[in-house]
Amino acid sequence: MFNELNLNKGLQASLKNLGFEQPTDVQAQAVPLALTNRDLLVSAQTGSGKTVAFLLPTIHRLLTVAEVPGAGTRVLILTPTRELARQIFKQSKLLTSNTPIETGLIIGGDEFKFQKALFRKNPEIIIATPGRLVEHLEKGSPDFKELEVLILDEADRMLDMGFTEDMLFINKFCKAERQTMLFSATLNQTGMNSIAKTMLNNPATISLNAKREQNEDIQQQIILSDDKDHKQKQLTWLLENQAFTKAMVFTNTRIAADRLCGFIRYKKMNAYALHGEISQTQRKKVMEEFRENKFDILIASDVAARGLDIKGIDLVINFDMPRNGDDYTHRIGRTGRAGEKGLAISLVMSSEWNVMSSIERYLKIIFERRSIKELKANFTGPKKLKNSGKAAGKKKKPKDAKAKVRNRPKKDASKRRPATKPMADRDASGLSTLKRKPKEQE
Ligand code: AMP
Prior knowledge:
The chain is α/β, with parallel strands linked by helices. 35% of the residues lie in helices and 15% in strands. The protein has helices spanning 9-18, 25-34, 50-64, 82-95, 112-121, 130-139, 155-160, 164-173, 192-199, 228-241, 254-266, 280-291, 302-305, 325-332, 353-363; strands spanning 40-43, 75-78, 103-106, 125-128, 149-152, 179-184, 204-207, 218-224, 246-250, 271-274, 297-300, 313-318, 342-348, 368-370. Strands 3-4-2-5-6-1-7 form a seven-stranded parallel β-sheet, with helices on both faces. Strands 10-11-9-12-13-8-14 form a seven-stranded parallel β-sheet, with helices on both faces. Helix 14 links the parallel strand 12 and strand 13 (342-348). Helix 2 runs parallel beside helix 3, helix 3 crosses helix 4 (82-95) and helix 6 (130-139) packs across helix 8. The longest helix has 15 residues, at 50-64. Residues 400-442 have low confidence and may be disordered. The structure holds adenosine monophosphate (AMP).
């Protein structure tokens, strides 16, 4: 129970108003440790209540430790996307509503001048996306010389999105003696060790989900499909026949999201699309209206939907199979949040079989096989399977193998142009997955 933690009274009142009585697992483990000012390295799934896990002890600290006179920002929270930053901002406002603590939001897309003024007002807590914060640091507005707590939220995503350099740059401006808490879906990510070594000091590690552990509140199914047209029919059937309050449908590209949204609306269903190309204002509006149940189907690409916390999403459909297990986990994590039940259905055509099977292996589960009686696919799975579960098939030899042998001298490697990434290596937004900062997210 939260009241056993001896938290500040104002904070306890906010928890009561929010209706939070029992800490979630991550809160039960992280809050008491964080209250001892230890650095923390926490692996916890989105939807586990991790935001409150880091906000509670931090706000309690602000209310109990006297501020250094003339200090600038006392708490900095870095998070990969604007939506996530807004969500944390909202939680922070709610939790501090009975206290004098102020929170400021610094994200791309909002007016720079206004944000500069916000730094002058000096709120105790700043929630920021890395790119925009770096711009401010370059212009000298923020003051982190007396920073007491640094929180890195969804650190794996920040690394994925190419923010490593920005994080290290920001770190240089922050007071070295401070508490640092890193939250991430996985701690095994490339680069995570080095970030943790540079930015944290002798952290206690809390491994909750380990990413591959499944959220048992989500039922996970696959339905075999023949092609995209067939998928559209199956999707229509599911949206018309499967009971749900709010559904999210994922595609791998923003163009596909728009097209599919057009199709669903043509079928007289209430859908909107959300992806990186949509203007900031429009995105905000779509999210708000989805939250307020003004429509019930959101078609999204991965990048746009990362970290979204919207209550009541009980159905996730992968119209396109995601390209890897991490994206799959993030997508289905939009449902089954905070103990609610959810259903995730992936439509799988033959070209997606192998990726589906490698996701099964990665997550160490077998998806439930389901079919729609009136829309059964001719594709019933590969004829032969390898031990890995992937399709077994001979590699086709070129008709005239000899003709393909090249006898040209090897090119000078230094003159070679760098290979361009094939489309398959681009993420859902169409951006290359090479370490590049997706500006639209900032
Ligand atoms: P998060 O993992 O931070 O995205 O949180 C997921 C959801 O859980 C949010 O909607 C929170 O408002 C909710 N939540 C957080 N802590 C609790 C709690 N102790 N009891 C009930 N719901 C919670």
